[in-house]
Structure formats: structure tokens, C-alpha cells
């Protein structure tokens, strides 16, 4: 499935949530969709946990 089709489906889901559920439902669907996107990328191996939780490098401190 292409990224354009996935974007179309996500946009339609947000549109339906906004129309039928109001702004709160729109925000909930958008937040859960973003969370699902990052979980999917993590499970595919495109993201690593250490990208988000890396320690500060002492040599970069000024």
C-alpha cells in the first residue's frame, strides 16, 4: 500500500472523527494515530529505542 493511500485513509478517519465526534474526538484519533505510527515504525525496525533515550555526551557540554 502506498503512502498516499495510507495518508488518504488517515485523513478520512480524522475527518469522520471531527465531523461526528467533535474536536475532542479529532484530537484523540490524531494522537492515537501518531502513537500507532511510531509503534509500527519501531516494530518494523526503522526506529530504535536508544534514539529517544540516549544519554548526554559529556564532550558536548560547554
UniProtKB/TrEMBL annotation:
Keywords assigned by UniProt, alphabetized: Membrane, Transmembrane, Transmembrane helix
Record's protein name: DUF2273 domain-containing protein
Transmembrane recorded as keyword: yes
Gene source species: Streptomyces nanshensis
TM annotation in the entry: 6-39
Amino acid at each position: 500500500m502506498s503512502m498516499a493511500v495510507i495518508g488518504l485513509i488517515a485523513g478520512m478517519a480524522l475527518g469522520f472523527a471531527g465531523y461526528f465526534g467533535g474536536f475532542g474526538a479529532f484530537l484523540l484519533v490524531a494522537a492515537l494515530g501518531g502513537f500507532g505510527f511510531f509503534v509500527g515504525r519501531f516494530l518494523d525496525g526503522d526506529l530504535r529505542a536508544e534514539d529517544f533515550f540516549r544519554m548526554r555526551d559529556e564532550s558536548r557540554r560547554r
